[in-house]
Amino acid sequence: MTQHPPAERIVVLTGAGISKESGLETFRDADGLWSRHNIDDVCTPEGFLRDPMLVSRFYNGRRAELAGVEPNAAHRALAELEQAARDGSWDGELLIVTQNIDDLHERAGSRNVVHMHGELRRVRCMSCGATPECQGDCLPQTPCPACRHPTLRPDIVWFGEIPMHMARIDAALAACDRFVTIGTSGTVYPAAGFVAQVRDHADTLDINLEAPAIPTLFDRTLVGPATRMVPRWVA
Ligand code: BJW
């Protein structure tokens, strides 16, 4: 019989490392996206205003990659834990706060997912704020289906912008008993500061392929690939 974690309210923060074994790139690993793309060009509002086509090509390329990959054992293990809460076999609550813009948590079956850095499958109208879904390539000069304004940007949080759903995330962090990070370098704020927010009231665990180079604020670390370590932690 499966023994799920004992804590009642768990917040899991995921980063690019959880999707790496599905075939998506991370950002800051040696072979990551930032080794080939300039952050200021593709990941800032100023970069988009300078060259919307360059930014659109960057995200269209990532949309194409996402279409060719599947959730992995780590995504599925989290979805199974949430399902256990739903069917009553685990007396707990799980919220996934993801920095990822892919939809692999949802495709694995998770429903309680908050995308704090936006979603690849949506674009945002720079006039009315509508966030329609976009299939295949999305181009900035496409008219918004709601207001016809011809400037749709990726629905992504770039540097200098405020991450999404922060009120819900802060409330979940304040109420959680356990906080687990999976596959994130912990370099980008505000997500990097969540462990400091919870450590006086929650048990904290970091799951990462690499052992931390410097001491961290986490109570425990599990070192290894997410597809091995997350099912082991959830079981
Ligand atoms: C595995 C694995 C396997 C690999 N198994 N593990 C100076 C000090 C402090 C803050 C700032 C500062 N100057 C500027 C700031 C703010 C800035 C910031 O933090 N900058 C830092 C770089 C210093 N932050 C912002 O601007 C944010 N906004 C903000 O702060 O607004 C103010 C505000 C906040 C709150 C309330 C009110 C006001 C916005 C940040 C936007 C980030 N956007 C991006 C790109 C968009 C999405 C996209 O294109 O995909 O988000 S940047 C990029 O980094 C992306 C990611 O979500 C994010 C985090 O990266 P992640 O996921 O951690 O990936 P990596 O590559 O870094 O790490 C992968 C990890 O996986 C590694 O550790 C591997 O070891 C591991 N791994 N394989 C397990 N198989």
Automatic annotation (TrEMBL):
Compartment(s) where it occurs, according to its Swiss-Prot or TrEMBL record: Cytoplasm
Active site, per annotation: 117 (proton acceptor)
Main location: cytoplasm
Annotated positions binding Zn(2+): 125, 128, 144, 147
EC number: 2.3.1.286
Record InterPro entries: DHS-like_NAD/FAD-binding_dom, NAD-dep_sirtuin_deacylases, Sirtuin, Sirtuin_cat_small_dom_sf, Sirtuin_class_III, Ssirtuin_cat_dom
Cofactor note as given: Binds 1 zinc ion per subunit.
Domain observations: 2 residues (Tyr-59 and Arg-62) present in a large hydrophobic pocket are probably involved in substrate specificity. They are important for desuccinylation activity, but dispensable for deacetylation activity.
Summary of the function given for this chain in its UniProt record: NAD-dependent lysine deacetylase and desuccinylase that specifically removes acetyl and succinyl groups on target proteins. Modulates the activities of several proteins which are inactive in their acylated form.
Protein name: NAD-dependent protein deacylase
Organism of this sequence: Gluconacetobacter takamatsuzukensis
